[in-house]
Amino acid sequence: MKQQYDLIVAGGGMSGVAAAVAAGRKGLKVLLVEQSSMLGGLGTSGLMTMIMASNYWFYGIGKEIIDGLIAEGKARLIDDYPVKDYRRIPFDAESMKLALDEIVLKSGAELMLYTKIIGVEQENGCLTRLVLAGPTGNFSVEGKIFVDATGDAMLAFYAGEPIELGDESGNTQAPTMTAYYAGVDFERYEEFLKTYEDGPAIPKVNMIHDLIPKAVEDGVVSVEDLHHPGIFRISPCFNVGVMNAGHVYGADCLSPEGLTDATVKGRRMAAEYLNFYRKYIPGFEKAYLTNTGSYLGLRETRRVVGKYVTTFEDKSTYRKFDDAIMRFDGGAVSDVHASSPDKKAYQNYYNLFSQREGLREDDYATLPYRSLLPQNTKNLLIAGRCVSADRKVQGQIRIMGYCFMMGEAAGLAAALAIAENKLPGEINVSKLQVELKRNGVETR
Ligand SMILES: Cc1cc2nc3c(=O)[nH]c(=O)nc-3n(C[C@H](O)[C@H](O)[C@H](O)COP(=O)(O)OP(=O)(O)OC[C@H]3O[C@@H](n4cnc5c(N)ncnc54)[C@H](O)[C@@H]3O)c2cc1C
């Protein structure tokens, strides 16, 4: 294996995949390092098997992958999401894993699974090497440019970049264990939901608000978590549903002890919710739990405080930055989940989520290139859910459609920098916008 790369992408989630593919297609020597056995990050190992994307502002490599899966019948498009102009595209994790392996390898990027990044080496304000731990022990690889697509901002953290965590008190949004349940009679379930159609919220929410307190009283579930989104069918052919099985409140998602505890609790909750559905909901009598995510669903951990922190004000004033690298819907919801299960925290969540009246849903905000650049490390780019944005913006652009687009921009920026022998902060962003447009990504 070559030991020196033009670009090393850390983390093989949706943002890392797009970065590696974009740069690989441009002829760079790319290495994509992933600690688990698969690509896709939370989208596969976390079982978040539903692309959420705006009708208008989702383009590029991510769309290419999803369109391919839809064409093969391995994902499908549902246009009935209660948030206007949003699409849900459920896919199955196995098809996605295959598609991601293929697109990465075809791009020419090298893929290294089962390898954890455990440190960085630095010189003159640049990263020089990543220290890796793999099945043969520890070793290092040398790169010219690096993309941090680890979700947890691992490279930025190792490099000593400024970081923010959660709210003002450091509380992060509660994580969720996601689970697949098979043997569901969806027709009867849908029929049952119709009895909850009256009221301001969607039937699933009304149902949960009615039944969860009762289930707690009956000892069926242990936490009165009113914020439970219900179950979604992942395939039209099979009776399998995916569920974000509650929230693990108070979890510390950046320590081994905290992650262990939260994962154990998350799995327990997935089993509890099976009991809940079996007991109260028609259609679930014969349902069973087939698998939980091999990785806990982390909504947020570290956010890099980069050269520019994109804010809720930027989003809600539909700001069009000169150095924009992607568009996102200014009028869409900010999905900042509560850190605790109390009713006030849920109400705060709900108020922010529903804060859409009067917003121009057909207009867009933009993410500036500077939000991909950390403050100090000159050859590092950030992509995905740890990008430099405030919580409310992170609560929106962490969905997979946007993670793909951030990764693609980072990969193309690296390609421009290598071609012109520059650092990422020195490239001409207009040229990046032209490259993005060539890939179908509208930026301004
Ligand atoms: C409960 C829940 C429900 C969600 N629902 C949806 C939804 O319906 N639709 C939607 O579009 N989005 C949804 N999301 C959001 C979305 O799934 C994630 O935000 C997105 O997938 C993040 O992508 P990413 O590439 O930034 O990071 P990740 O998916 O977290 O990928 C990071 C990758 O880096 C690897 N990595 C980390 N550290 C290291 C290291 N030290 N060494 C090597 N590799 C490392 C990880 O193993 C992982 O593969 C949901 C999220 C959660 C938690």
CATH architecture group name of the largest domain: 3-Layer(bba) Sandwich
Q: Level of helix content?
A: 25-40%
Shape: globular
Summed up, the domain count is: 2
What is the CATH topology classification name of the largest domain? FAD/NAD(P)-binding domain
Largest sheet: 7 strands, mixed
Low-confidence stretches: none
Q: What is the CATH superfamily label of the largest domain?
A: FAD/NAD(P)-binding domain
Radius of gyration: 21 Å
Q: Beta-sheet strand percentage?
A: 15-25%
Could you give the count of β-strands?
Answer: 17
Q: Helix segment count? A: 12
Q: Give the ligands present.
A: flavin-adenine dinucleotide
Which secondary-structure class do the elements indicate? alpha/beta
- Average of pLDDT: 92
* CATH class category of the largest domain: Alpha Beta
Describe the structure concisely:
By secondary structure, the chain is α/β, with parallel strands linked by helices. It has 12 helices and 17 strands. It binds flavin-adenine dinucleotide (FAD).
